[in-house]
Amino acid sequence: MPSRYLNFRWSVPWLILLLEIVFLIHSFLLFPDVGNIYSPAAFYPEFQDVSHMVIFGFGFFLIVLRRYGFSSTGFNFLLIVLGVQFSVLVEDLLVFLKIEQSGSGMKSLAKAVVSVTAVAISTGAVLGRANPVQLIVMTLVELLIFHVSRCINGTFLKVQDSLSLMHVHLFGAYFGLAVASCFPEAPPGLDKNRSTPQSELFSVLGTVFVWVFWPSFSSILADSKEQAVLNTYFALAVSAVAAFMLSALTSKDGKFRMTHIHSAVLAGGVTISYTAHSIQQPWIAMILGLLGSVVAILGSHCLQRCFNPALKLQDTSGVHFTFGLPAVLGAVAAVVLSVVEEGTEIQWNDLSSLGYLSFVGLGAFCQTITTAVLTGLITGLILNTKLLKAVPVSKYFDDQFYWE
């Protein structure tokens, strides 16, 4: 048995055991009383939807490689359940340090599940090239930095707590891309680095799961829940229709391409996440959904042909054009819409107020993406040290290295 195999055999179980001991100690010392965990009771169905979306949806969404199905679903499930516990621990620690306000147990758990979406997105960028130990370390670092980024947005820029959580797509995409840039590039002729009709079908099944439950994801912590659900659904519906239209228009033979459907149908949900709770007219949400789909499909052509080869960046699941670019579009749209709405109320007399509003929105966006890229690069360098046993390039995208 190879030495690297033995290393994973002993390092992964003991690392997981150590983390669980820490989580048990945390639950004994800091977790709120059991009587408050399940209140309010009406909150649970939304939480269940988001949990399904993250575990089922992203678990199948990541099955894009023909020989990496076990690892895609299995590692995603492991990272989610570890990440949720660690996210609750970090949030309780911030409450203990009086950096954040205390919330109910169920709300804290919902924030943790939403936050761990960043990990699922980042995993797609390094899919097939990172071993379990590297993925676990990446999960812990990413969630810690994401909470710090949220605290900066909330403390200094006064961004609402529910809105700062919606930066999860932006942070997850660019953190994952920065980490992926530090991994050795797979050789061009590697046959395992491709999909099959079966893997594409499972991946689209995950896309459908994510699509169905996305309205609950956007509204779970919003004040105007009905409005958030309505706007999110309209944006998703238009982006799905536009995905089929643009796929046929941009392909040489005029046929639909599953890779376009796989990514672009979700772009509307990513784009509308920042403004779903505040948009008053559904047609605005529909336009954002259309623009998100356009950015995803056109971005996939530009990035895969120009950007990725130039930077030698291998984005396995296409998280850049599925989540990154639509998130940038949504953040810019949120700033524009807030300025227009505020300007209508004050009749454009107080330009200083409008300037401050623009500064807050752009500041939160720039801070989030800068923090994600810089810390992602540092994390990627740490993950490729000898201590964490980087996977040999010849063993990329292969379940056989980890599974029986």
Describe the structure.
- It is a multi-pass membrane protein.
- This is RHL protein.
- Residues 15-386 form the Ammonium transporter AmtB-like domain.
- The chain crosses the membrane at residues 12-30, 50-68, 75-97, 109-128, 135-156, 162-180, 201-222, 228-249, 283-307, 319-340, 360-383.
- GO terms for molecular function: ammonium channel activity.
- The structure is a single chain.
- The protein is mainly alpha-helical and 404 residues long.
- The protein has one domain: Ammonium transporter AmtB like domains (Ammonium transporter fold).
- It has 16 helices and no strands.
- It has helices at 3-29, 34-37, 44-61, 69-96, 105-115, 117-125, 132-156, 161-165, 168-180, 197-219, 225-250, 258-264, 267-272, 282-311, 319-346, 351-383.
- Helix 1 packs parallel to helix 4, helix 3 (44-61) runs antiparallel to helix 10 and helix 10 runs antiparallel to helix 11.
- The longest helix has 33 residues, at 351-383.
